[in-house]
Amino acid sequence: MRGSGRALGRRATCWSWRSARGLNLPLYRSDMRLTGIEFSPAMLALAKQRAAELDREVDLQLGDAEALEFEDASFDTVICTYALCTIPDDRKAVSEAGRVLRPGGKLVLAEHVRSPLWAVRAGQRLLEPLMVRFEADHLLREPLEHVRAEGFVVDELKRTRLGIVERLAAHKVADNAGSNP
Known about the structure:
Layout: E1 11-16, E2 33-38, H1 41-53, E3 59-62, E4 75-81, H2 90-100, E5 101-112, H3 118-135, H4 143-149, E6 152-160, E7 165-172
Parallel strand pairs: 1-2, 1-4, 2-3, 4-5
Antiparallel strand pairs: 5-7, 6-7
């Protein structure tokens, strides 16, 4: 999925709840129109500073991934990197991504997930209460379940780092009633 940025289309939106410091900005093509949202004013300021340093025009806005203030079917691509694990209602955020995507639009996620390895998962279960309390970071979520439940068709799926990082690319079908095996 590293090369996914080359085929993202005319307009992309990326959101992050706590980490939109603009770290992904250099990865996007210069001819792409970008819109980014951030829940934290402090993180939004960092993202704007990063965009200015890169001399990159980006529409950066304060916003909530659970209630996007964009019209239906307004984006070709939605990208979410390491944010669903911190969004209180991650299912609602995935649903909102589907709402703002055009038919055929691409959803790209990179997220912390529950490991399939029992020993790693046991460690995650022990750490989860502390991580949620102090970092608002859920270690045991499975975004893939929400993506499929929202009718996306998964095109690419890869787990790394003992199964705790998942990279996913999916697309929205015209009637949003795709099937996933």
